[in-house]
Amino acid sequence: MRLVLLGPPGAGKGTQAAILSEKLGVPHISTGDLFRANIGEGTPLGVEAKEYIDAGKLVPTDVTARMVESRLLEEDAREGFLLDGFPRTVEQADILTDLLSQKGVALDGVLNFSVDEDVVVERMLARGRADDNEETIRTRLGVYRDETSPLIEHYGDAIINIDAEGDVDEINERAMKAINK
User: Fold this and answer.
1) What is the pLDDT of residues 55-107, one digit of tens each?
2) Which of 65, 131, 145, 170 has the most CB atoms around it within 10 Å of its CB?
3) Whole-prediction pTM value?
4) What whole-number percentage of the chain has pLDDT above 90?
5) HEC-encoded secondary structure of the chain
6) Using one digit for the tens of pLDDT, what is the confidence trace for 5-36?
7) Half-sphere exposure of 53 (CA within 13 A, CB side)
């Protein structure tokens, strides 16, 4: 099963990815984890990414795409994966499509975890992190909305909408039902 996970910050993607990864027997590949691992291990891509991060800049699509490509070549991802945090733009979605087509495979779907913004704000404020205040959270949600709406349009029929409100088990049950159609 090859899936991309979309959803705003606080939608529970990480939680669902961990459960889905175990149930489906495929790795959860998060770009945040990839950055941390490559930087921590001092790989050439990690060194390159760290230069941008240290300068307060976004890591360019090219660097991120090469990290994702490298990770997808690993043995455990050969039969499938859950991609979280990539693609974030239509340009990245096209890169992913090219990477997969070179391997003769395609995505099985794009899970879009939908949740009301007020619910996200409540969830994130409840975490109690210092950088989580309502204004910051709503700004991040706006950025997500602006970046992701074109992706949802781009993927069209491949989008599988999942209602991400409710408890963890209910949401997981909805996701499993949706992808096992």
Assistant:
1) 999 899 999 999 999 999 999 999 999 999 999 999 999 999 999 999 999 99
2) 65
3) 0.91
4) 87
5) CEEEEECCCCCCHHHHHHHHHHHHCCCEEEHHHHHHHHHHHCCHHHHHHHHHHHCCCCCCHHHHHHHHHHHHCCHHHCCCEEEECCCCCHHHHHHHHHHHHHCCCCCCEEEEEECCHHHHHHHHHHHCCCCCCHHHHHHHHHHHHHHHHHHHHHHHHHEEEEECCCCHHHHHHHHHHHHCC
6) 999 989 999 999 999 999 999 999 999 999 99
7) 13
Tokens 């990290």, residue located: 67
CB 181 within 8 A of CB 113: no
- Please, what sign has the CA dihedral across residues 169, 174, 175, 180? positive
Within 13 Å of residue 106, how many CA atoms lie on the same side as its CB? Answer: 4
Please check whether residue 33 is in contact with residue 82, taking contact to mean a CB–CB distance below 8 angstroms: no
Is 25 in a helix, a strand, or coil?
A: coil
Banded model confidence at residue 181, pLDDT cuts 50, 70, 90: low
